Amino acid sequence: MKKEISIIGVPMDLGQTRRGVDMGPSAIRYAGLSERLENIGYTVRDEGDIKVEIQERAQSDSDTNLKNLQDVAEGNEKLSQKVDEVIQANRFPLVLGGDHSIAIGTLAGLAKSTENLGVIWYDAHGDLNTAETSPSGNIHGMSLAVSLGLGHPALTNIGGYSPKVKPENIVIIGARSLDQGEKELIREKGIKVYTMHEIDRMGMTKVMEESIAYLKERTNLVHLSLDLDGLDPDDAPGVGTPVMGGISYRESHLAMEMLAEANIITSAEFVEINPILDEHNKTAEVAVALIGSLLGEKLLYGAEEHITPDLLAQVK
Ligand SMILES: NC(=[NH2+])NCCC[C@H](N)C(=O)O
Ligand SMILES: [Mn+2]
Ligand SMILES: [Mn+2]
Question: How confident is the model at residue 201 (pLDDT cuts 50, 70, 90)?
């Protein structure tokens, strides 16, 4: 894994209609992200936030039913350039949302330098809607479809090319709220999905073993797009579209630790944290803890490299 991490904040709330998710990047930083990563040996470079139009000034009047199309597209275009720049500089991009529409820009930046990007989509939802199938017109429910090349050209053409990912390079984990059109698309494209049913039945260990093996066969560049609503709302309450019966905090740690061990993740984003809906800053703290595990933090073994001297003295 690259030793230098670039944090990119994206205060985007135009991909959905609940206010507050634009404060996600601040909440995650406030929960101690940089320090946590420095403690496990990374050099952290905070690139600041991408400039996104604010909701009250956003243009909603488009000739489609897509909400805030133009401003979502603009923010994502800037994000894609920043992500590409970070990749070119050989640093690990860690993108903080913002609503999940920002995956459009992240993937557009990442896929610029590879035709074979793998994606883990950790989410209660598929985000596989198009204008035709979307029940809401919210672009955060369309970002994966857009990245497959399906949707409004103002979105699919971000970065100047399309598509960004191949359906066979995607694994969705945690799905439990899929719209009819999304289910059809999953079947049509043969996208690999582990719904909550498979997670309950097989256990997270097996789900991750299979997911890792599946992606390793296809690529050595894997992006983790983690929507906090993939977790159960009891563990991650600060999200705009919670769905009960989700992945637990512990299962999520295990999943992140297994990804760290497999050493396959080359970029990541953590999205949909809405501090207004949160309990204190719990969901951002969960995100920071998961990011720690994803990037190699261990509870005990290898502690010398990972924890503060005070804690180390207690362990020994
Ligand atoms: N990134 C998210 N939280 N997406 C939620 C999407 C909800 C619903 N499927 C829609 O398209 O409107
Ligand atoms: Mn999502
Ligand atoms: Mn979701």
Answer: very high
Angle between helices 103-110 and 69-88 (to 10 degrees): 40
Mapping DSSP to helix (H, G, I), strand (E, B) and coil, where does residue 290 land?
helix
Q: How many CB atoms lie within 10 A of CB 14?
A: 30
Dig out the tokens for 278 from the structure. Answer: 């949160």
Note the ligand closest to the C-alpha atom of 13: 1
Q: Which of 303, 201, 302, 209 is nearest to 262 (CA)?
A: 209
Beta-carbon contacts of 214 under 8 Å, excluding residues fewer than 6 positions away, are 171, 192
Tokens 């009819």 found at: 180
Strand order in the sheet with 92-97: 43-49, 4-10, 92-97, 265-271, 222-227, 118-122, 170-175, 192-195
Domains of the chain, with CATH numbers?
Answer: 4-313 (3.40.800.10)
248 Cβ neighbours under 8 A, 6+ residues apart:
231, 232, 235
Residue 150 in 3-state DSSP?
coil
Strand, helix or coil for residue 8: strand
For 288: left if phi > 0, alpha if psi spans -120 to 50, otherwise beta; the answer is alpha
Mutate to test the pocket of ligand 1, among 127, 134, 272 (most ligand atoms within 8 A of CB): 127
Atom 5 of ligand 1, nearest CA residue:
141
Single-letter amino acid code for the residue at 162: S
Active-site residue numbers? 100, 123, 125, 127, 140, 227, 229, 272
The tens digit of pLDDT for each residue in 176-189 reads: 999 999 999 999 99
pTM here is 0.95
Q: What is the rounded CA–CA span in Å between residue 240 and residue 242?
A: 6
